[in-house]
């Protein structure tokens, strides 16, 4: 019999050790409290956001013959690297800024 709630997908995780500037670490702690989430979750989500939004990084991955790894659906499948949109105005990433909200 199928259960109402599906089984949780377990993702492979690796442990790393990093050093952060004190002010960055303090803001990380505040943000974790704000979200009521762990450091691991917040850092993972921040990096995943940057990897999705940084167009030059996506372009570099494509030039290296690599694909960005899918992180949101719990699979290890690779997703296609999107082609840059043609636009006369510079994107926020090209201007050195990234938008906060999606």
Outline the structure in words.
The longest helix is centred in the middle third of the chain and has 15 residues. The chain is mostly helical. The chain has a domain of about 30 residues. It is about 35% helix and about 0% strand. It is flat, with a radius of gyration of 17 Å.
Fold blueprint:
Elements: H1 22-35, H2 39-53, H3 55-63
Relative helix content: 25-40%
Report how far apart the termini are. 39 Å
Average pLDDT rating: 77
Q: What overall form do the CA principal axes indicate?
A: flat
The fraction of residues in strands falls at under 5%
Summed up, the helix count is: 3
Would you kindly provide a brief summary of this structure?
With 102 residues, the chain is mainly α.
Structural key phrases:
3 helices; mainly alpha; flat; 102 residues
């Amino acid at each position: 019999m199928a259960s109402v709630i599906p089984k949780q997908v377990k993702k492979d995780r690796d442990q790393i050790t990093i050093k952060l500037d004190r002010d960055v670490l303090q803001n990380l702690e505040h943000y974790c409290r704000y979200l009521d989430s762990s450091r691991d979750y917040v850092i993972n989500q921040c990096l995943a956001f940057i990897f999705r939004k940084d167009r030059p990084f996506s372009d570099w991955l494509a030039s290296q013959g690599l694909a960005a790894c899918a992180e949101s659906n719990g699979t290890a499948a690779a997703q296609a690297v999107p082609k840059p949109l043609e636009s006369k105005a510079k994107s926020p990433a090209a201007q050195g800024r990234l938008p906060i909200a999606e």
